[in-house]
Amino acid sequence: AVATVSIFAALLGYDIGVLSGALLPLSRDLRFNSLEQEVAVGCLNFVSAAGALSAGMFYQQAGAVRCVRLAVVLYALGMLVLATALSFGQVFAGRVVCGLGVGLGFAICPAYIAEISPPAWRGVLVSCFEISINLGLCSGYLANLALMDLADSPRWRGLMLLPLLPTAVVALALVPRLPESPRWLLMRDGNEHEPGPEAEAAAREVLVRTCGEEAAGPALAEIKHVLAHQRMLLKMEKQKE
To answer: What is the pTM for the complete model shown?
Structure first.
């Protein structure tokens, strides 16, 4: 599970790094002015913020795995729109769609790794996500270097198409195997309700799979304690109102 999410993190990093070299041939091919270049590059940051801010709502409703799947699909769709773009409007649309996936992935994936990891390894495994982002950045620079001798149009379009194959593998082969977050399984009936025996059994099964039999019990108790504290705080706030 951590490996799957880390591969996706590398793809997110690739998207950030690849445009540094793709912008010039893209601008020459589609005849962008300086303002259009600035918008094409900078819009990703603003849209990513919107994707990250909406991540909590999606997580509450759908769970971590569906959020990861949505982020992967948005990323792939955005890169495909970019690779086939013939105008600034299409490039902008591709960057917007891709940015939503990037923001959603950056917000959900580290939290998901933390929720399925053994407490003793949690920091190390979450760091794998951050390291993978930097590896993805480097791969974007290397891809630019590898395609630098091509003509403008096949060069930048090829750079946008390169991550689609690994993205398809992640979406179709790896994401369906991801275990759901045990924390979400325990709270999917709402923050105000205690988890039922079925939810607790499902969460324990995930923790046994990801943490091992010995660590599953303490990890489950920790999650239940945190959720109980959150329910208590919610009740106190309602009493004040």
So the answer is: 0.86
